[in-house]
Every structure is written in structure tokens, then in C-alpha cells.
Sequence to fold (233 residues):
Amino acid sequence: DTGVSQDPRHKITKRGQNVTFRCDPISEHNRLYWYRQTLGQGPEFLTYFQNEAQLEKSRLLSDRFSAERPKGSFSTLEIQRTEQGDSAMYLCASSLARDTLSSYNEQFFGPGTRLTVL
Amino acid sequence: AQSVAQPEDQVNVAEGNPLTVKCTYSVSGNPYLFWYVQYPNRGLQFLLKYITGDNLVKGSYGFEAEFNKSQTSFHLKKPSALVSDSALYFCAVRRGSSNTGKLIFGQGTTLQVKP
Fold:
């Protein structure tokens, strides 16, 4: 078990370009979360998957953002037509929730992808 | 709306002294509370959680936290600080009735432990 991994770790792009990030959760975890963290702030929830189903999206997630989790394994987060305000650390987390008790399990976070939009 | 407040941007403590990092929360229903630590260029690491039961929760690396329902607080504590405890600490809350388990984080408190 190598933990949650994210790729790339850093991404620099020009305004208007599209970017895609990947998250590989801990293998048996059925829940996957994306958060965004800006400098000096705590992480903010973006979206949540239970297996392959995207069950909740934050209002922070504009139409330019899309996330997928095909087959309930890895997930991708795509940002289209990037803006300078998208510059942030994008964090992925996973957890295991098989029953009521385990639904309170803590989330395990990846190292994040730092996006810089020039 | 759910929210978490960490009133101190930074806490300074001498090595060997006790430390406290404060957290207050606002949530409807039963709160589920978490502390995470973030080291530079690394992801958040889970320290401890309160779900139910004993108000004093013990976690990793000698940390503990006390849930106080009347004061809506969940302060993080350690009896004797280490220089290696220096990091950014986040308190987070989850609404008990939430089906998704999404976390609401505070803005973080930087802990600086000086030798």
C-alpha cells in the first residue's frame, strides 16, 4: 500500500490552456475526494465519488472543471480554459466506507498537484 | 452552514513545553471532528478524530484533542512539544448526517517549536 498518489506534482500552464490531473487512491478505497487549497487557506471541497459515481459537486466547481472516475479506480480532474485564479494546490483524498461505522473513516490525502497559471 | 475557525495563525512554543492549537466549529447536528498536519511539500496527514464516546481523543505522535460540546471546540494538545512538531495544522469538521463525508477545513495554524 503506497498511499494516494497524484500526477503531475507540478504543472505550469498558460492562461486558456487545458490541464488534466490524475489521482490514484489507495486500492481498496471506494470514496474519492478532490479539494483545492490556496496559499494561506485550508483545503476546500470540490467533488466526491462513491465508486464510479460522482455524487456531489461544490459550487466552486465551475463549468470549466470536470472530474471522472472510470471503473471506480483512478480519477482525473480536468480544467478547461485555465484562468489565473485557478492557480492552487489540487488535493486528492480517498477513504473506505463499507458500512455505517466505516463511513466515519478518515480521509487519506495525496501530495497534491500544484498548478500555476501564467 | 458548516464552518471551522482556527483563531491563531501561528503558535510559538519552546521545545518541551505543552502546546495547544485552538479550533472551534459550527455545524448542524452531531459534529465529527478531525485534525490533520501538513509538512512542506507533502500532503495532509491524519492525526486524530472524534466521532463519539470519550471527549478526550488520543492520536498519532503523542497528540490529543478534547471535544467540548458546550464550547463547540476541539483543541489540539500535546504535553511536551518537539522541534519536529513544527508544521501547519488543520482542524476539520464533517456534519454527522452527511452522506458524502466531505470535510470543511479551518484556515490552518502554523506551529513553530523552538529549541
About this structure: The interface with chain A takes residues 4, 32, 34, 36, 41-46, 49, 51, 90, 92, 99-108 of chain B (CB under 8 Å). Chain B has a mean pLDDT of 93.
